[in-house]
Write a structure and sequence with these properties.
The protein is built from five helices and 26 strands. The chain has 569 residues and is mainly beta. The radius of gyration is 24 Å and the shape is globular. It has a 22-stranded antiparallel barrel. The chain has a two-stranded antiparallel sheet with strand order 20-21. Strands 24-25 form a two-stranded antiparallel sheet.
């Protein structure tokens, strides 16, 4: 109780913040190439549940390549509108985004969502959204439930805006890889978890203040946030963050950058000992200078990443990391292509909440270490092959100290986990990872009705060390077909290469065991009617592959869902 009272007092101190901005254009950086959960594959039954927003699509390819990321949350029709364009768009019906979405499928899949917002005007914009999704394979007690409630509002001024957001997120995951003979005789705590699953809650608020650039001043943003995270397994975490961001554009160069601070306090309680409390304070200074030369179509960004951290995670309680940051792109004369590349590195924050968001199937106290990328260097080419096609290709290498990974065990000392192992849980482990990687992606249009796209990533870890749950191959292929304006069809194939895990075998010997590869065939059909709604049906894991997202945790089999989305007013 004292923990939450303290948290509430800190939150009420007046924080501000913003949501993460999505990158624009080609993905140049190849960052987080080997992040243990950078494979943005989620349970196949949840792939691409959100329908495409009914907007007119121009028959051309935009220059925007990103590694595919599947998410069941709905991209909102409305975005907070910047003051300089509010007057142009306040009559556009696209921004009248009130809608209701319902869906259902096998394995007790249910989906419900409502989104309400005002008609944008020159002073105010606000919205409320709520969504609930759940699925349950009763035979093996494979249950997942997600609830999201978000409220946000914006106040626009002549050259600035203030946006606030309140959110509450709740997730339930059952440990369906558990032993079937668990009883209260083993452990009352383990038995309760096996019966009720793991429940997590994350809530807080954001505020974003933006001051637009003018002739005499640069663009300025003050971004702050406060949030709390807890589970029914006695994990608690508070995080406060503040960022100052600026961007000043001149005729031949621009100066921009971030100055940010994060404070993270985590409590992990134990039965027979005092809670494990960790405190981390991060200060990041990321100055940048961009030079551009339009006659030769050459751009270069130079800067430095300075990451300072104070914590009680290990003996090194205070440390500062300094890495150079360089990016460039150069147009190829006579071709609609560009050469690009870069070099950088830096510190990645890890915490209980971040671990849970990547892999929720842990119970015990987690070892916390921050991952440090010593270097990441890459070079590639991107652009148009023809008016109907685009591509990108790059290769490079990186090295990360204390890369976050997940495994059943880490070493022989984990023999004490016998009662927890009966639940099929995993734990965070860390290792130094060095890779050489190659990535390729392309899109091709056949007229204005058919589009083919694909992405491939190949990684070579270069040693005999075990890299846990990290694939050496990831791919994604999609075909889109729109025979008429109101019908959209998509067929996709997504997968990875083999992955590994560590387990304790006979005589308590650590053994490498295969997690296997992922192969998921999925499809979707959308039919839009009268510009007021759409009917949709989708299927995933259509080949009924028994692949595992995590060791001992197989995915749902063939999953089919359907539903309707309706514009309200």
């Amino acid at each position: 109780m004292k923990y939450w009272i303290l948290s509430a007092l800190l939150i009420n101190g007046g924080q501000l913040v913003a949501q993460i901005e999505k990158p624009k254009g080609f993905e140049n950086s190849s960052k987080q190439v080997v992040s243990g959960t950078n494979i943005k594959l989620i349970s196949a039954s949840r792939i691409n549940i959100d329908p495409s927003i009914p907007q007119t699509e121009a028959p051309k390819i935009s220059i925007d390549f990103k590694t595919p990321q599947f998410s069941w949350t709905t991209p909102k029709y409305i975005q907070n509108i910047s003051p300089e364009i509010i007057k142009e768009r306040n009559q556009d019906s696209i921004y009248l985004s009130n809608y209701l979405r319902l869906g259902a499928g096998n394995n007790s899949h249910l989906l419900g969502e409502v989104y309400l917002s005002n008609r944008p005007n020159s002073k105010w914009a606000y919205n409320l959204s709520g969504v609930h999704f759940n699925a349950n394979n009763v035979v093996r007690d494979q249950k997942v439930a997600n609830t999201r409630v978000d409220m946000s509002g914006s106040r626009f001024f002549k050259n600035s805006s203030l946006t606030t957001r309140l959110f509450y997120h709740r997730d339930l995951n059952t440990f369906f890889g558990k032993d079937t003979n668990i009883s209260e005789l083993n452990s009352s705590e383990v038995f309760n978890i096996s019966e009720n699953g793991k429940i997590s809650q994350n809530f807080g608020f954001n505020i974003d203040y933006v001051s637009l650039a003018s002739r005499k001043k640069p663009e300025f943003r003050w971004l702050n946030s406060a949030q709390l995270f807890e589970t029914n397994l006695r994990h608690q975490e508070m995080e406060l963050a503040s960022t100052l961001r600026f961007n000043s554009k001149l005729s031949k160069f621009s100066i921009f950058g971030d100055l940010s601070a994060n404070y993270i306090q985590s409590n992990q309680k134990q039965d027979t000992a005092s809670p494990i409390e960790t405190k981390q304070l991060f200060v990041d200074v990321l100055p940048r200078v961009k030079f551009y030369h339009k006659p030769t179509d050459f751009n270069v960004i130079g800067g430095v990443n300075i990451n300072h951290v104070q914590n009680n995670l290990d003996s090194a309680s205070t440390k500062t990391y300094v890495n150079a940051h360089i990016e460039f792109d150069k147009g190829i004369t006579g071709l609609e292509m560009k050469l690009y590349g870069g070099f950088d590195g830096g510190l990645k924050k890890n915490s209980v909440r971040r671990i849970h968001e990547q892999m929720p199937f842990f119970i015990e106290n987690q070892l916390l270490k921050n991952s440090y990328e010593q270097y990441n260097v890459f070079v590639g080419v991107k652009g148009k092959i023809s008016n109907q096609s685009l591509f990108y290709m790059n290769f490079g290498g990186n090295s990360i100290i204390d890369q976050l990974m997940f495994s059943t065990v880490s070493d022989k000392s984990d023999t004490l986990r016998s009662s927890i192992d009966s639940l099929g849980s995993l734990k965070a482990v860390y290792n130094t990872v060095s890779t050489v990687y190659f990535r390729l992606g392309a899109e091709y249009l056949f007229g204005d009705k058919i589009k083919l796209s694909g992405n491939l990533k190949v990684l070579n870890y270069g040693s005999d060390d075990v890299y846990l749950h990290l694939p050496s191959l990831m791919y994604d292929i999609n075909a889109h077909f729109s025979p008429v304006e109101t019908v959209k069809i998509r067929v996709g194939l997504t997968g990875t290469g083999n992955r590994n895990n560590l387990i304790l075998a006979e005589n308590n010997k650590v053994k490498v065991d295969a997690v296997g590869s992922i192969l998921d065939l999925n499809a979707r059909l959308d039919y839009r009617f009268k510009e007021k709604g759409r009917i949709w049906i989708q299927g995933s894991n259509l080949l009924n592959k028994n692949y595992q997202m995590w060791y001992g945790l197989p995915n749902y089999g063939i999953t089919v869902m359907g539903g309707i989305s309706l514009g309200l007013f």
